[in-house]
Amino acid sequence: MRIKVDLESDALYFRLSEDDIEESEEVAKGVVVDFNKTGKVVGVEILNVKDNFTIEELSKLNVELPIVLAK
């Protein structure tokens, strides 16, 4: 997974898979979901991030990972 903040294009992008993007759909105003050829979500883009988040908020993105216990 990759997270990219692109201030030049004013977008925040979550790349969930490296699969090729086959189709994109704007599911809400300023929210675009990318799909692979089987319909799996491979990315989510949020547009106009500077209108919705401060630079300080964007610089403090946290990733919360699950704890996986070995059996």
Give a short overview.
The chain contains two helices and five strands.
The number of helices is: 2
Spatial ordering of strands, largest sheet = 1-2-5-4-3
The residue ranges in which pLDDT falls below 50 over 5 or more consecutive positions are none
Oligomer: single chain
Query: How many beta-strand runs?
Result: 5
Considering DSSP H and I runs of 4 or more, what fraction of the residues is helical? Answer: 10-25%
Distance between the termini: 25 Å
What is the average per-residue confidence, as pLDDT, rounded to a whole number? 92
Structural class call reads mainly beta
| Bulk shape | flat
* Computed CA radius of gyration, to the nearest angstrom: 14 Å
Helix-strand sequence: EEEEEHH
Describe this structure in words.
By secondary structure, the protein is mainly β. The chain has a domain at 2-50. The chain has helices at 49-52, 55-59; strands at residues 2-6, 11-15, 23-28, 31-35, 41-47. It has a five-stranded antiparallel beta sheet with strand order 1-2-5-4-3, with no helix packed on it.
Topology:
Layout: E1 2-6, E2 11-15, E3 23-28, E4 31-35, E5 41-47, H1 49-52, H2 55-59
Antiparallel strand pairs: 1-2, 2-5, 3-4, 4-5
Features of the shown structure:
71 residues; mainly beta
